[in-house]
Design goal:
The chain has 159 residues and is an alpha/beta fold. The protein has five helices and ten strands.
Length: 159
């Protein structure tokens, strides 16, 4: 999908006018940080996993990596990312624009504790050249998150 379904979705929260579109790619943490002029860790990357055959999204800080042991303790299964070619059909967005907004029915969204050290973060908005700055409360509300979890490692604790 593209940015328009996300724009429409975020309009119900009064957030659509805050979407930023770039002339350059923001498809990776590094590219998004460059486009936004912010630290990479403030990019809220959305990772796609299969848990018991269902799609699960985990939104984490740009400098965080999934910790397999923590993931297994949380979801009672091994961390298995959705293959790149299956992401659009299972999530509703292509890799590079995956975000927790306007996703397919039944996709569960979780927010990782690695984000909690920031007042605002920058998730993508459905395309490989977009982002939005949201407070954690706005992200939680607009993503329809199931809750906060702690499944990542290697992130710096300093803001």
């Amino acid at each position: 999908m593209a940015i328009e379904p996300v724009r429409e979705y975020l309009s119900q929260y009064g957030l659509a006018d805050r979407i930023r579109e770039f002339d350059v790619s923001s498809a990776t943490v590094e590219l998004a940080a460059q486009a936004l002029g912010c630290a990479p860790e403030r990019i809220a990357k959305t990772l796609s996993f299969l848990v018991d055959g269902a799609a699960v999204l985990i939104v984490a800080a740009g400098d965080a990596r999934v910790d397999n042991a923590k993931f297994k303790a949380q979801f009672h299964t091994k961390a298995k990312m959705i293959p790149r070619e299956e992401v659009p059909s299972l999530i509703g967005h292509a890799v590079g624009g995956v975000c927790p907004f306007a996703v397919k029915e039944g996709v569960a969204v979780y927010l990782d504790a690695s984000l909690r050290r920031f007042h605002t973060v920058f998730p993508a908005c459905g395309s490989s050249n977009s982002a939005i700055e949201l407070t954690l409360d706005e992200l939680e509300r607009a993503s329809g998150a199931q809750g906060w979890i702690d499944v990542c490692k290697d992130w710096n604790t300093a803001p």
